[in-house]
Amino acid sequence: QVQLVESGGGLVQPGGSLRLSCAASGSILGIYAMSWYRQAPGKQRELVAIITGGDTTNYLDSVKGRFTISRDNAKNTVYLQMNSLEPDDTAVYYCNADIMTISTKVSNYWGQGTQVTVSS
User: Fold this and answer.
1) What does the alpha-carbon distance between residue 26 and residue 19 come to, in Å, rounded to a whole number?
2) What's the burial of 71, exposed, middle or buried (CB within 10 Å: 0-12/13-18/19+)?
3) Residue 94 and residue 37: Cα distance in Å, rounded?
4) Which of 36, 64, 89, 98 is most deeply buried (CB count within 10 A of its CB)?
5) SS3 call for 73
6) Alpha-carbon Rg of the chain, whole angstroms?
7) Average pLDDT score over the chain
8) Model confidence over 62-118: pLDDT tens digits?
9) What pLDDT was estimated at residue 105?
10) Residue 36, CB half-sphere, CA atoms under 13 Å: how many?
11) Secondary structure of 6-57 in the HEC alphabet?
12) In which band, very low, low, confident or very high, does the pLDDT at 16 lie, cut at 50, 70 and 90?
């Protein structure tokens, strides 16, 4: 059984910063791509940032230059540093990862989500 547990969400004023963390645990042999999605009320879930096993990154255009995705493979953890936050960044943020377990099967997993609210 694999679990992804996010932390670091909260309420922040416009222009502020937050750092999200997502730790994977369980019978893990390896983790490939890790990513962050978000879903605002009434909107579809969208990909915010992705980091491959080779540390290649890609970002949603609206967060480029403000958000940074990184990973610590020793801790099976992915981070999202969010700076210069805007009200439009308000959403539930979800961690996602492609993980190989001891069954040697690669499956896709989601975290439970963490709320980020940007408001004055």
Assistant:
1) 23
2) buried
3) 5
4) 36
5) helix
6) 14
7) 96
8) 999 999 999 999 999 999 999 999 999 999 999 999 999 988 789 999 999 999 999
9) 86
10) 35
11) EECCEEECCCCCEEEEEEEEECEEEEEEEEEEEECCCCCCEEEEEECCCCCE
12) very high
Other C-beta atoms closer than 10 Å to the C-beta of 17 total 11
Q: How far apart are the C-alpha atoms of 51 and 58, rounded to whole Å?
A: 7
Residue whose structure tokens are 């255009």: 61
Structure tokens at 68: 């940074």
CB atoms within 10 A of CB 50: 18
Residues paired with residue 91 on neighbouring β-strands, in sequence order? 116
Helix (H) or strand (E) holding 84: none
User: Three-state SS for 62?
Assistant: helix
Classify the phi-psi angles of 69: left when phi > 0, otherwise alpha if psi is within -120 to 50, otherwise beta: beta
* pLDDT for the residue 7: 96
pLDDT of residue 1: 86
